[in-house]
Specification:
single chain; 163 residues; alpha+beta; Alpha-Beta Plaits; five-stranded antiparallel sheet; 5 strands; 31% helix; 25% strand
Length: 163
């Protein structure tokens, strides 16, 4: 079974949408582990703050099938993919890692890991000792470097706040 990490984000009806997305993930994947909630300002546009949550899971599905499941969950919640990339989101589910697969066409590992605290923080929390297949550092090391070298706003809350 493949070990995957999914990032869930929402800045509209955040608690309900993220809790609902986690319920759907539990129906589709095994061995679910959930990070804390990470709250951050909208990036690239003016909007409400986002909640982001990382989810580890195991699956026998292919990468393409995992992405199809994630898109179907987004569709269930009313995600409108015609909106600009940087805009408010009812729900956003992104496959961040799939084992140690490196596939630039499928954006694996997701390049957002190295760009955004709200992607790296939950990944490091759940997978701190795993090594990024391209950077050759653990996710905890990457998070420590990110904290040293970047300015960002990020608040952390226990996931029990919404579950």
């Amino acid at each position: 079974m493949a070990k995957i990490h999914i990032n869930i984000g929402s800045n509209q009806n955040r608690e309900t949408n993220i809790a609902g997305a986690i319920d759907y993930l539990k129906l589709n994947f095994a061995d679910i582990k959930i990070s804390d909630i990470f709250e951050s300002p909208a990036e690239g546009f003016e909007g409400d703050d986002f909640y982001n949550v990382g989810v580890n899971a195991k699956t026998q599905l292919s990468i393409e099938d995992v992405n199809a499941v994630l898109k179907n969950i987004e569709k269930t919640f009313g995600r409108d993919r015609t909106q600009p990339k940087f805009s408010s989101r009812l729900i956003d589910l992104d496959l961040v890692i799939y084992d140690a697969v490196v596939n630039p066409e499928l954006n694996l590992p997701r390049d957002d890991i190295m760009l955004y605290s709200f992607v790296l923080a939950p990944l490091a929390q759940l997978n701190g000792t795993d090594t990024h297949p391209l950077e050759k550092q653990t996710y905890q090391q990457l998070w420590q470097n990110f904290q040293t070298n970047n300015q960002f706003e990020l608040s952390q809350y226990n996931i029990e706040k919404i579950l």
